[in-house]
Each structure stands twice: as structure tokens, then as C-alpha cells.
Amino acid sequence: MKPDLKLLVVGSSAVDRARICQAWDLAGMKFPIVEAESRAMAIAALDTQPFDCVLMGETLTDGNGLSLLEALQRQVKCPGTVILMAEANQRRAWDFLEAGAHDYLSYDDVTPEVLCHRVWNAVRMSQAVREGRQVALQIEQALDDNARLHQAVQDGEKIRNRVVMTLGRNQQQLRTLQRLTDLLNQRLTNLPGLFQSMIDAVCDAIPDGEFGAIALKNPQSGALDVTATLGIARSDFDLRSTFDPEVGALGQVFSTGQSGVRRLDAASRGTKSDPAALCVVAIESSQAGRIGVLVLGNWDDDRAFDDEDLRLLIAFGEQAAIAIDNAQLINALEEREERLAFQNTLLSQQNQELESQRQQIQLQNLKLRESAQVKSHFLATMSHELRTPMTAIIGFSQLLQRQSISEPQLDMVGRILTNGKNLLALINDILDLSKIEAGHLDLKLEKFNLSNLLQVTAAELRSISAQKRIELAVQCHLTNDGIVNDSARLRQILVNLLSNALKFTDRGSVILEAKELNNDRLVITVRDTGIGIAPEDIPYVFEEFRQIDQTVTRRHAGTGLGLTITKRLVQIMNGHITVTSQAGKGSTFRVDLPREAQTKLLSSPRLPALSTKVDPIVLLPMSPSPPF
User: Fold this and answer.
1) Which of 67, 163, 291, 385 is the most buried (most CB within 10 A)?
2) What span, in angstroms and rounded, lies between the C-alpha atoms of 539 and 402?
3) 192 shares its domain with 94
4) Residues 279, 310: contact at Cβ < 8 Å?
């Protein structure tokens, strides 16, 4: 049994509750029992904090244990429940168990061992019930997914079959159209031969077509002249009257331009030589307008041809029109090819210019990277060189403060010491930033108590909050205080966030909170009631040397490196930091960290070797930056 279980005991009798609390204490449990005498008090306690188990008596000051049990059953995460009975009544106990209780216990049977056994049994049963509900939901979801998947597979199979059939037919039609296209490319100078090949291909592509013909308008006479035919072998079939523009069936299609299928059953046909079905389309030229008709017929079957056949025949008619148009457009295409050749030459020249510009930009980027590397080396060197004399200034200032000097002199030495510390903090920040950018900052991992670190860090800054008369509070909700990280660098993150919160808060409070997301990750939050950040400035708060107020007369001092270093350190710790804020109402910085950190160097771009040799810089060990 876990020693850190949290219990809530509810009952109208203080004596009975005390008996349970005494047995729990004798069992050596970590957390004391929370007591409540009424259903309302119990519900309020459950709303403020989680409990692993609730022990409830049969009678409460405002009801009975059954009403409280019903209320617990409606919660999403119902804790374990044990009914406390004045005497061992099996029938009464069975009523509570049917209502959802996990176990029962008579006050006369209360001992540390029995109490622990019954509590642990109820906790395990509640956990099993929750897990069973989750498994049932997962099974139900899986069954629904399987049913939907099965239906989708069946629908997909039907669609696939239809698609296969359609694709097969379309492929046949595309092959035929491709043949026509090839013919168009090869026989532009022999249009009659092209039309004959076209009518042959049409009859092959449409199985119901027993005969076919192409007739083109004669520009001089206005009549339709038959250009190509296939399968018209019956001597009694009047071809000329059929294509007559005024009275012939195909001539009417030419006149109206309405393509379609004409059907005649055996009773409607005038003679046996008349075809039973005709599929007729008008040939429309994009340049010359309507120039002829294309017909496909069946002698005996009046059900021949469907909409697909009509659409395919329309496509053939369009190909015929294309053949005529191509002969007229060939000169225009040649002129267009000449223009395209000129444009290609111009584009080639432009591509060469763009390539030259790209190389120049690449060279400029290389120079910028070299400049950035030289800048980082320069900052590290100068910060290191400035830190040594600044440390001496601070040390001698502290020695002077211990000497017997006058008050004005003591005040001046104090100013020297304060400004020296501020300058040293700035130098340390620059050193940290240069280390991080160069990828030379390693974490010194150790296991320590996070709660102690939060309390100690807050205590160091409490003088600032007291001076500004604002509350600085620490809220630690950790079941396990142990963490593996670099305590000095984590303290630096806390100091930077708390210092900023205190600096920009004039009234209200600053709250430092820590809690667990799960067993492997923690969240540290710093909330304040300060001036806040405007929405348009939030994306820039972590940029180096960035401050919301960039004027020289700004109210709040600082260099703009604190949050930049904080974000880089959090990233090295395999975590991430976010900020939410509202101008005039305060800000909240949220740091998500793993419980056991691993060293992670921030990736930096690989730079080519510099033309100027730079001596290596040796950085002295340093402590975390103080607040600024």
C-alpha cells in the first residue's frame, strides 16, 4: 500500500471520525485525514483537492451517506469509497455496495491494519473501474471504426469496379483519339485520306456502328458533299436525300447544329433500306463555324447507341474540325514558335543574371556569417577582459566599505559597488550569450530538491518585493520534489523571470508556482499583475537586446538579454518557454521542463573557415547572472 494516500472522512459523529484518524496515524501514513461532517463540506473539499479514498458514515448532518455516494458517482474521476457503519449489518452494507460503494467497515472493526486493507482495496477497485470504463470506450470506438472501415472498403470496392470499367472504356476511346491525333499530325496535306481513316476508326471504336460517313459543306453550292464513307453497301439507300440540307435527316442536323440519336422502329421505317438508328453530330470549326456532319448508323437495332457513344462521336467531330483548323493555323503556329524561341533566349539571359545574383547573395551571406562569428569572438573576449578589472573594482569597493570613512564617502563607495555589480551582471549575460551562441555551454547535471530551490530563490528576492510592497508567493504542488538538472542554471532562469516580474509590477503580487504534468515533465510558472505586454510585442520578448520601451527615457532599466538567455537555457534543458499577457493586467511565463534533463547543445550553422585566424578564448567559470 502506498503511504502517500489522501483520505477524506465524512460523518456526523466527531468521536467516530477521531477513531478513524487515530487508526490512520498509527498506520504511519504520510498525509493526515481531512474531516467533514456534512455532505456540503465533503463536496467542497473534493472540489478543492483530489482524494484517493472517501470514508463516509451512514448519517451526515445534512443528509445520509447514500446521497453523498450518489454525488461521487457522477464525478469523472470517482475516488475509492468505504462506508462506515455503526455495526456489521450485511443487508445494509449490500445496499451501499449496490449503490456503488467499493467496501464497508464497521466502527467496531477499525484497526490500523483493517483500515489500511479496506482503504487500499477501495482505491484499487476505483482504479479498476476507471480503467474498465476506458477499455470499454476504446473497444466501442474500435468497433465503430471497424464498422466504418468495413463499409468504406465495400463502398471503395464498388467505386473501384465502376472506375475500372469506366477507365477501360475511356482508355479504348483515348487510344482511338490518339490514333486520330497521330493522323492529324501526319496527314495535314491529305484531308480526304485523313477523313477516311477517321471514319474507319469511329466504326472500330463504337461496336454498334455498322456504317458511317463524313459530309462537308461545299462553299460554292452550299450542299453537303460526302467526303468519306464506310459500310454503306445497300443499293437502295438514298445517300443524297439523307444529306439534303432542307429535307434530309442529316441535313436538318447540319442546319440546326443539334447533335443526337435518331431512332426508328420497324413500324416507323418507310423502307427496309432506312437505318434503325442514327447517331449524328455537327462538325463545328472554331474558325469557320459549322462545316459538316459526322454520322454513324445501325441498320436493324433501334436501341443502338447511347449517351457515351454520342459523346465519343462528338469528340471525333471535334477532331475532324481540328484537322481543318490545323491546316489554316499552321502558319500561325510557325510564327508563334519563332516568338517562343525569342522568349526562350530572353529567359536564358535572365536565368544567367539570376544565377549571378544568387552567387552574389551567397557570397554576402558567407561574409555575414564570418562577421557574426567575429562578433561573437569579440564579445566573448571583451566581456572576459572587462570582467577581470570589474571584479577588482567590486572587491576594492567592498574593502573600502569596511574602512572608517565619512558618510559621503561611504555613499559614493556604495554607488561604485552597485554600479559595478550591475555592469558585472551585464558582462556575465554577454558571456552567457556568447557561450550559448558558440555551443560551449554545458549543463552540470545533479539531483536536487526543486521545492527548496524555489523557496531559496524567492527568499533572495523578497527584499525587492518588500521594498515595492507587493506579495511574492511560492506555490509548490509536487508529489516528488526530486529533479535532475543544473541547479545553478535553473536558479538563473528563476532569477531572471522573477526579477522581470518584480521590476514591471508596482502593485498586486508575483506568484511562483511549480506542478507536475506527468511523471516525466514539470511546469514552472511565474505570474504577475504588472504592466503586461501588448499583443503585437509578444513575438519579440525573447529577442536579444529587445525591450518593449526602446526610448532612452524609459522607466525600467535593463539590456534586453535576460529573457533571451532564459529561453536559450530552457532549450538546452530540452524544455520550452511560453508567455501569455494582457496589457495592464499582467503576464504569465510558463517553463516546461523534463524531470531528468540531458545536455542539449543548441545547433548553430556550420561556418566556413575564416580568412583571419582568431585565437581561442578561455572563459572563466561564472555564477548565474544577478537580476537587472
Assistant:
1) 291
2) 47
3) no
4) yes
Q: Quick one: which H or E segment has residue 289?
A: strand 289-298
Question: Cell digits for 231?
Answer: 459500310
Residue 563 inside a domain? The answer is yes
CATH number at residue 569: 3.30.565.10
Q: What is the CATH number of the domain that holds 71?
A: 3.40.50.2300
Higher pLDDT, 492 or 202: 492
Strands 289-298 and 277-285: antiparallel
> Cα 513 to the chain's mean position, in Å?
28
In the chain, DSSP finds a helix count (H) and a strand count (E) of 14, 19
Query: Which of helix, strand or coil describes residue 484?
Result: strand
| 153-174 pLDDT tens trace | 888 888 888 788 777 766 766 7
Residue 211: the pLDDT is 86
CA-closest candidate to residue 595, choices 524, 525, 497, 489: 524
The pLDDT tens digits of the residues spanning 333-375 come to 778 888 899 999 999 999 999 999 999 999 998 888 787 677 7
Task: List, in sequence order, every residue forming a beta bridge with 222; answer none if it has no partner.
Answer: none
User: How do beta strands 80-85 and 53-57 pair?
Assistant: parallel
Whether 413 is covered by a domain: the verdict is no
pTM of model > 0.85: no
Q: Kindly report the backbone phi and psi dihedral angles of residue 339, in degrees, each rounded to the nearest multiple of 5, phi listed first.
A: -65, -40
528 vs 605 pLDDT, higher one: 528
The answer to whether the CB of 83 falls within 8 A of the CB of 56 is: yes
User: Could you give the percent of the chain with pLDDT greater than 70?
Assistant: 83
Nearest residue to 56 via CA among 76, 83, 31: 83
Task: Give the residue, 395 or 525, on which the prediction is more confident.
Answer: 525
For helices 307-401 and 191-205, the axis angle rounded to 10 degrees is 90
Would 141 be classed as within a structural domain?
Answer: no
